[in-house]
């Protein structure tokens, strides 16, 4: 989700309190204006992240920021994953995505470590991830232009 400073402050105030964090995110997701600026990735977030940042938190910046954000906000990452980027970090990720070509993504996808590959790994999943990546690029470009925060969330 693309968030204003005020909206992000409310989310950041819940860092480490997973129940409060979940409630804050739910409230934002129910806000039509906020949700209209969100970016869905369906299940493509996983192959995108595993291809461009296979080392997870240890991956190079800003590649790891595309899905992994700059900081985790939840305490228990077995149930959900919630990450945050401030406007400066959003700008860095947007710049990275602007120069990441589909061919470069495909090369990264092709050498994704086997232990990170989904059962669906292959040309269909690669195409699926590339399709969603196009929207992620636009999302980050728009967030950077508006100097907004980004919060990524997924429930397992």
From TrEMBL:
Entry-linked Gene3D superfamilies: YfbM-like super family (3.40.1760.10)
Cited InterPro entries: DUF1877, YfbM-like_sf
Pfam families per record: DUF1877
The protein's name: DUF1877 family protein
Species classification: Bacteria, Bacillati, Actinomycetota, Actinomycetes, Micrococcales
